[in-house]
Amino acid sequence: MATLVSGPVQANLDALTPGTLVGGKYKIIKQIGRGGFGAVFRCQHIGTGQDVAVKVLALPGGDNDVVFQRFFLEARSTAGLGHPNTLRVFDFGQDASGACFLVMELLDGRTLADELRERLRRGEVFTEMEALAIADAVLRSLAEAHEKGLIHRDVKPHNIFLHEVHGDDPTVKVLDFGIAHSAELAAQNALTHTGQVLGTPSYMSPEQAQGMAIDRRSDLYSVGVVLYELVTGTTPFAGNTPVSTLYQHVNEPPPPLRDRARVLLSEPFIAAVERALAKRPQDRFADASSMRQALMGKRGHVSGSQLVVRVSSSAIPAVTVDALTLDGAMPRITVNGETVDAASLQPKTTRRNTIVGAPPPPALTPQDLAKLAIRRQLLMLGAIAVILLSLAAIAAIYTQRMQVIPETTANDPLPPVAEVNPAAPPSPPAPKPTPAPVPEATPAPVIPPPPMFDVHPAKAKAKRKGCDPFDPYCR
Question: Which residues contact 257 (CB under 8 A, 6 or more apart)?
Fold first, then answer.
């Protein structure tokens, strides 16, 4: 068990510069974010070289023991959660200077709040399938936390991260269990007191806004607010001040989702969100699994492949291009703040890839024209030589065939020809000979076949008992 020394130790966040070691083994690379309760740094483990996120606690003035206990709760409770949709915690402890730190997995991407803000800027919101993909992951993460007696109490788009997994679909991660409510410490009345309100007003359940006792159904109300905002662009009670938001919507029903939705929604989705936004906890879903099953309905398993997110990554450069002009000049292009030569980005001109409006090729020099003329003459001479060789071969073949046929001369004797006397009468035709009578054919004598035993050699087998009587050797 880690030992935390409480006391008025104030972490100097300005002294945590790149290269500084936190906890003796995590080297700071750069600062990721900073808030009222601390700062988050991108660090590298000096032993394994793994990049991690280190959260350093900054103690406010006043009772630091409560802050220490809350930090210890966050570290121990989050480290016990192993669901893929929950931010993993690897280590926690206290630096030699007294500053407490929490080591978590490093995520790459953007929060759901940043993605929603970017879509609203383009006039878009999330579709129902995208909202279902986010709700499915968040409810799975909360189901594990609820089973371990942990209530998040601050479910909102800022604490839902769209983690970019290179080569795979985006993964939804639930962040920040720093103000989570634990049944163990609630029994000790150490961190949460009656009347104490922690969380974000726009996403609080009515009982949480009044400082009453809460359970897992309070997180389900917050999930309903998040889904309402994803498909409408606003929370159910947007436009109210934070103070009025805490109390005005306690008994006021939210505006109908069907009237404010900016995308096409199905009836099961509307019914599930409106049930999650019920004012009384007993009218909501009993647990996260029940709400997830009601949302999914007959849709089956919804994965990150249905979530189309334009996540911002350090591997993707920021490219800006100026507007095109009518004079045909190339626009100015900047990549990560540096100007790039636009001509170097143009494709090469080939016979199959002709750029419309491209400048004509440069004119040929006299030396190039002379080389082309010589090349054409050589090609013509080669073609003529091939034709002459072909004609010579054909003539040789024809001459050889003519020598094979024998030639006749005038001195060769001709075959004798019988003389014909025209005065002699033609001789009568010779009488046809009378055919001699053909004697009747006498039938050939029938010769019986020889006995079977005469076919075999003269030597017979010895007589033995039980031989076949039809066997010629049987004696």
Answer: 228, 231, 232, 265, 270, 273, 274
